[in-house]
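User: I'm curious whether this sequence folds into something compact or stays loose and floppy. Could you predict its structure so I can see for myself?
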Amino acid sequence: MIIIMPPSTVVLREWNIIELKDFGSRHFVGFSIYDKIGRVSTPIQEFDDVAWEGVTESGSNYLFKGEPGLVHPDALYVLNRVAGYGRIKYEWVYPTPQNTDGLH
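Assistant: Here's the prediction. I'll summarize afterward.
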């Protein structure tokens, strides 16, 4: 089940950014340490890749634990659902070592 979350401060671990080529948007994907769930953000409005923080279209503030790359399995599950099981094409912004067959 996909849940729409109200704007808040979100801290993600095991995260990355996807770029939706057909839509021209980027989204945070990762595991929320407060909610204990995988998340895919609304489009990114601002991102500081030095301080590792960003703001999304919904007004949520995102902070990140650890380097980008490997994405938590729960976040991949949410991404798969949001991306329509492969109907929406995307690319990872940061290299990811995991197998994402069928998800890009």
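Summary: The CA atoms of residues 7 and 60 lie 4 Å apart. Residues 9-92 form one domain.
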